[in-house]
Structures are given as structure tokens and as C-alpha cells.
Amino acid sequence: xxxxxxxxxxxxxxxxxxxxxxxxxxxxxxxxxxxxxxxxxxxxxxxxxxxxxxxxxxxxxxxxxxxxxxxxxxxxxxxxxxxxxxxxxxxxxxxxxxxxxxxxxxxxxxxxxxxxxxxxxxxxxxxxxxxxxxxxxxxxxxxxxxxxxxxxxxxxxxxxxxxxxxxxxxxxxxxxxxxxxxxxxxxxxxxxxxxxxxxxxxxxxxxxxxxxxxxxxxxxxxxxxxxxxxxxxxxxxxxxxxxxxxxxxxxxxxxxxxxxxxxxxxxxxxxxxxxxxxxxxxxxxxxxxxxxxxxxxxxxxxxxxxxxxxxxxxxxxxxxxxxxxxxxxxxxxxxxxxxxxxxxxxxxxxxxxxxxxxxx
Length: 360
What we know:
Blueprint: E1 7-12, H1 16-27, E2 31-37, H2 41-50, E3 58-60, H3 63-68, E4 74-77, H4 84-93, E5 97-100, H5 108-121, E6 125-127, H6 135-144, E7 153-163, H7 166-171, H8 183-199, E8 207-210, E9 215-216, E10 222-230, E11 236-242, E12 244-255, E13 258-263, E14 273-280, E15 283-284, E16 291-292, E17 296-301, H9 306-322, H10 330-350, E18 356-357
Parallel strand pairs: 1-2, 1-4, 2-3, 4-5, 5-6, 7-11
Antiparallel strand pairs: 7-12, 8-10, 8-18, 9-10, 10-11, 12-13, 13-14, 14-17, 15-16
Helix pairs in contact: 1-9, 4-5, 5-10, 8-10
């Protein structure tokens, strides 16, 4: 990597996920923790101390103060989804590059406001979908794009569930309709939808239909749901996301010649190694008692965890913009497509599981 002055990050808010990303910024060689802002100076001070901020890091008692600091290059925004449009637009107007937690907005219209502000300000935006940056993801893409081993894509199935304790189900921002109105759909469902789109080379489906039987809490926030996605060429996909089931993170992609299976796709089982398997042109033995050949197992190792790789890539892009390049449009495009599908699932649930046609 070419030497560059580390990108100076300001963090807006002290959410739990910000601890993980703070560590990633510390480890990434081309980034540095420069400032943190909270609604309370005491909370910001405690957060900086607990997360090994440099001694000279700026501590602010408001989000505005971080955005007004001329030395902050980029901001990480782990705020509740309902606050994204306000603070991301403001950040872009102040010429701060934006690493934005997912879901990126309450709907695609809000995200379009954010993206427009980023384009006007000439700033990079990337969402916080960490697994996209793991080297395993690139390795799996090689298999999916191989017509001799995988063939034509026919179906995709993704799952992301985890069990929640009573405190989470009562107090977490992800179950509060004023903060994160999409609940499990916005949190775990975002990853399931991104996984489906990644397998389908980000070709949007034609139609989305929510599966019957979503579970809501008493204030109407989704705790568990699913959907089916349908493409004009006959490809289909399903996903299930939930706060009420055992920890599971899986993608299964089925082609005419091969099948990819990945367990722990959102967060690998181990920080420095991740696995997947694929079967290609597999059948049964003579007595139909075993697979021939069996699926092959693959392990991909990495010295840096995926969140560090995400921060490093984002910081690299910011560095190129400082040197005169244009922002990379790939990342806001992927965010927008994921949000479009998420919106369609929500619309289908709201309309009694009617099919929703996708319009890009």
C-alpha cells in the first residue's frame, strides 16, 4: 500500500457497534481515531477512554461539533436509522466522507437524499456491511462466476437469525419504532438481502413477496420475517431473518452445475479464518449411499478482520479523493439496491403479502 496520511475519523454517537469499528480504525494503518461526539460530553469521554482513543483525540458534547471540526476527514455514523438522513446529509454538506451503518435509511427516498448530498459534496459514502470486504467473499465470487463449475444461477437462500434476551426485546433501539422502525428486517434482514443480491451479481429481482407469518412486538416492530424474490429469467430466492431463533448465518446458492454453501457469512466462526464449501457436478455412488465427488471444503485466512479491511478500503478511497479522484459509485449503488428490496419486503407485509414490483 502506498503511504498516505491516515484518514482522521470522527464518530457520531457511542452505539455498541461503534466499539468494534473504533477498534478497526485503530488497527487500520491508513486511519486514525481523531474525534468522538455524543449528546453528552461525559458519555463521549467515557467512550474514548474505554476504546483506546489517542490521548490527543477530540471529545465533543454534540454531533455538530464533530462535523464542524475542520480536521475531521470522515465520519462513522452508527446512529439509529431514523437519524441517518439528518446527520448524513449534514456531514456531506460539511464535506465529510461517510461510513454509514445499515440499514442506510428508513426508505430509498431518504437514502437518495443522502446520496445526492454526497454527490454534491464530492464525498465518499459506504455502508457498514463488513462481510463484503472479507477475502472469502472474493474467493466465493470466483466460483459463482465460473460457468463450468457453477453453471447458471437458479436459486438462493439466506438466513440470519439470533436469539435475543428480554432486555434486548424491551429496550434495544432495534425494537423501538421511533428509532429503528424496521426491526429484524432492517438489521438481520439487510444482510440476507445483500447476500441474495451479491450472489445474483446485484441484478434486482422483478417481484418481491413477503412470506406470511411475520412476528411483531407490541408496538408493531418486526421481530421475525421473510420473503421470496423472483427474477424474469426464473431465478428465485428466499430469506428468513429473526431476533427469536438460534444464531444462524447462511447462504446457499444453487446453479445448474454446482452449489455454494457458506455458514457464518455475516461474521466468520473465527476472526482470522473463514470457510465455505462447494459441490460441482456431484451425484450419488452406485448404491446411493454417498456423494461423488463430495463437496470440497475451503478455508480462507486473513491477518486482518473484515471490519479492519472495510475501514482500510474506505480510507483508501478517501485518500484517492483527496488526491483528485472522484468518489467510487459502486458502494452507494449497492446500498441503494439493498434498500430498494428491503422497502419492497416491508411494503408487501403492509399490503397483506401482495407481490411488489421492483422499480429501480
